[in-house]
């Protein structure tokens, strides 16, 4: 889309008024609906009952907030009903279990909130019809299932379904350090780190939720679907039929690429032609298996993977920046490896892996350089020697650090007016009466959550964090906790702008772990906990800010949103821990394997451990001036300078071209190093779909785009998530032993020397 970063609260608000078509005959089959959709694609409507519409192209955040999302509200609708509590708790447990399973998968899948949205809609309506409404039953069933309780259920369950980073650290301690935390300490530690982020989100909501420029593109498909489900006019019913057609189609289709025909997860003509002969072809063109290759010219047909690129709802500016970065990554990463940068090729290190290695290519044993207190031992290190990173992973860390530095300066140069306004007189700590966002103005009828509630949660969770650190083992001293919590708040403020405007969340753990390396040298476990409280709490705040925006779009009373988020955090922490222990007990060998398997992989825990060891224990040996990977931390400074260059070019040539403003440097540099992780067979499909949606449909077929684009995204995500959950327990081994589909040409045997895309296997 056009420059979302230009969206400000003064944008005009254009929207055709919806009409009541409840009397219109609904007895129409799916064929007629497809015809209606096709006619909309051509820019016309065959139905004389269609509401007034315009052919205005959606250009910015203000257009999305008013032309695609309506501002209607009924303050009399209840939110915290029995249905909310019953379905909220149930779906929170369900989603948190699923998110923990996904965390140990090679595909890096996540639980979409659209997943819970669809299930809660079906179950909520069923409860509204089946539970009596008379007498005392009216407290269980206050009437039709409404948008407010539905949205609260989504916020409740999606908060629980965000895998807690504290669990990643607890799992890493178990897998790689032999340290098992007391269950109570582990759960309270998880709660504390997440609720700290919630305190941040509440304090910053005046700056990063209320205004129009804070679009949070990821919420748009959800709100579009919620409003379609609960608006009783013909247009919404027609849109819902379209939704269920797409939902059913993807539900049936996903069985094929994920289980029966995995070749379709990464269809590569180059791999098929090579027939598994050459490492170079696999490295550059393969992308169907964990840590296989970069997936150049590989097209995937598995929406579980495609949706990672958010092609239907990320702004075009964000997508173009990511694709440019990825294109540069193909060249940079390949040239670096084959020119033997850092000796990776000569030592025979894997093409892709987040683990540490000896110079002979075998897995590095970090316990051999640590003492009984899990601290660096110089004498042991002298005997063992330096660990090595794969070339692709080291460059990826360097690019991520470029992006971290660029994120701060990008916000400074492009969003200085908003920062200045918000922090002048600490306006962000007050309610902003002058915000003219139409959705925010509708929220003025509800009681706002007092700022002291959020400050109380912040202080309380800080106290719990201190208690858990000192009760079991002193992993991080209290004074250090204070430092990293303050740093986290500052980082959240800056990166919150990038996320709110572009939908992209910039990882900043490299910066935090660099700081921790100087504060706690030689202590990998302390470094992990510094990352938890200096980075993960802020990242959690971004998720919560997005949910607060969802609540604003759907006109949820702020105190109901507050209740839903806190409740979801508590349920999620408990269930994440239980599942983590179960999975580690059943698949420990697969999780510590540097490559992993097609079904289970510990690559995220391995990355957590690798960063902790390299930054925490060996920062001086690996990242100091003159050391092998010195340019990895130096990239933060270089990245900080880059946006100033683009800003200067924009000032000089902006009247001729807007290209320099169109490039988001933090996004571009992140995707420059985005490829060396897990499965990569889907990115070219993302590119095609993203251009078709956010350029062609948006500019050439604006009516269709406004009606169906975000709804299609919701349908595809929802159908995929549900069938993927079923397959995980039915055939992928989440409930015990897996059931492999019979081996055939489209599903090569893992022991036959071929990956699923018929490239040469990484184990051959």
UniProtKB/TrEMBL annotation:
GO terms for cellular component: membrane. It comes from the Eukaryota. Residues 43-53 have a biased composition (Acidic residues). It is a multi-pass membrane protein. Its main location: membrane. Belongs to the oligopeptide OPT transporter family. This is OPT superfamily oligopeptide transporter. One of its GO terms (biological process) is protein transport. One of its GO terms (molecular function) is oligopeptide transmembrane transporter activity. Keywords: Membrane, Peptide transport, Protein transport, Transmembrane, Transmembrane helix, Transport. It is found in: Membrane. Residues 22-53 are annotated as: Disordered. The chain crosses the membrane at residues 84-104, 111-131, 166-188, 195-216, 242-273, 294-314, 320-338, 452-470, 482-504, 628-647, 659-675, 681-697, 709-732. InterPro entries: Oligpept_transpt, OPT.
